[in-house]
Amino acid sequence: MKRNQGGMTLLGFLMVLVVVGFAAFIAMRLFPMYQEFYSVKSALKGLSNEAGVSDMDPAKIQDLFFRRLYINYSENVKPANVKIERMDGGWKMSVNYEVRRPLLGNLDVVGKFDASQPLTRQSPE
After folding, report:
1. What is the pTM for the complete model shown?
2. Where in the sequence is the domain holding 24, given as residue range(s)?
3. pLDDT given at position 100
4. Which 3 state secondary structure label does DSSP give 41?
């Protein structure tokens, strides 16, 4: 009995390689945006654990927040993107910003990010 060999052809392998390569390219373009968003969320969480943050004035809170972002090399969050509101027992800080990055040729990818954190005397949840 004659056996036929089975497997992937060169053309099939190249097609898989192109698809995987394109997915990796997209992931490399999007990763910095999400890494920055993680830095924003981390700065908010760290700020909520700061002693006495619920009694600070908004300018001081914003200064502490941007110091934390400066350490993480965040460049897309501007003071206009930060909103601090009074709430029971402290403050609520919201960060809402948009990032636009070139993707391929004249195509851009836009990421809209929104994070908020209560800055209260109680432990935040």
Report:
1. 0.80
2. 14-120
3. 95
4. helix
